[in-house]
Amino acid sequence: MAGKPQTLATTSAFEILGPVMVGPSSSHTAGALRCAQVAASLLEGRITKVTFGLWNSFAHTYRGHGTDRALVAGILGLDTDDENIKQAFDLAREQGLEYHFDIKGDDASIHPNTVDIDMVDDTGATAQVRGESLGGGKMRISRINGVGVDISGMYSTLFVAHYDVPGVLAALTNLLAYAHVNIAFCRTYRTEVGGQAYSVFETDGAPDDTVIPMLRKLD
Description:
The chain is α+β, with helices and mostly antiparallel strands. It has helices spanning 30-40, 56-61, 67-76, 88-94, 168-178, 211-216; strands spanning 6-9, 47-55, 98-105, 113-121, 126-135, 138-144, 147-151, 156-163, 183-190, 196-203.
């Protein structure tokens, strides 16, 4: 329905995962896994197909540093300290996940450890996400569906897609206040005036299970 917010991601993939590494470099393993894990949370269905576009350092070392397994593991929902990461490819085949790696090459204008993640779930829904692995297991989501964003994953995060019309942000913040959710940071991004927009709420603690159904009922 036009103008109706669609809640695409909740808090589960945005919890801080800690400093545990699964390979020789946290930038190429832990950070990469978290990029994929957060990206996967944007689709509600089971992801059946994913293409990873690898840039710069990722493009050159993804096999040797285990980035490829870490990315697949993140899509599957594994955490950075999960011993099953090394079997990520086998798990993907068992779960019917089709994955591909697209070597993009070098681009000095973007972060050295950048991955573009294009996903399709079992309902046919799609999402395109750009993630950056910043080192020390940290990451940043810098683009969602072609719109520049800035999501750190350091807080419980609610991501809402909506149209850029008056009153939407007020309705969203009022609802979160009613649900006793304290907003640490709030940002709204848009493609154009009156067009597609995204609001990102980073909160102190995860909203309870009643929040998302209420969000869906907003006009």
